Amino acid sequence: MGNHSCLSSAAMPLIRPKLLIETARIGARLYRREHDLPGAISGISTAARGPIVIRLRDAEWRCEELRRRRSPAYRPGRHVQILSALIAEADRGANQGRRQTKASGSAALRSAI
Fold first, then answer.
1. Would you tell me which of 40, 42, 57, 106 could form a disulfide with 85, CB atoms 3.0–4.6 Å apart?
2. Distance between CA 5 and CA 32 in Å, rounded?
3. Within the chain, how many helices (H) and strands (E) appear?
4. Of 37, 65, 69, nearest in space to 52 by CA
């Protein structure tokens, strides 16, 4: 199974297995912020985008560490849930930036992460 990139930033490129990314992208298309975000990160407010993306990125990194270590605590469904929310929130931020500043999609995505 090959690895693919789904998001990237200078601080942390997200290179994950193709199946994980494809599943998370489907989840991101179905993502409803008010319903799905609290399930991805408990106790998080849907108010501010920046801290949400950071917390989702950190939670996804913890899932990735468990996956790589082949930990029995790793839950693929949980990883997909968090990665889907991260992709959707990053896309949401990129789209907001595009509407406000007409920035390029890649620049807006990098600034969202």
1. 40
2. 23
3. 5, 2
4. 37
**Residue the block writes with tokens 């990314």:** 21
Distance CA 35, CA 5 (A): 26
For the record, the structure tokens of 88 come out as: 């959707």
Tokens linked to 109: 């995505």
Name the residue with tokens 């950071």.
Answer: 54
Residue 21 contacts residue 64 (beta carbons within 8 Å): no
The residues spanned by each domain of the chain are 15-88
The per-residue pLDDT for range 28-83, each reduced to its tens digit, is 999 999 889 988 887 776 665 668 888 999 999 999 999 999 999 999 999 999 99
Closest by CA to 59, choosing from 34, 73, 36, 78, is: 78
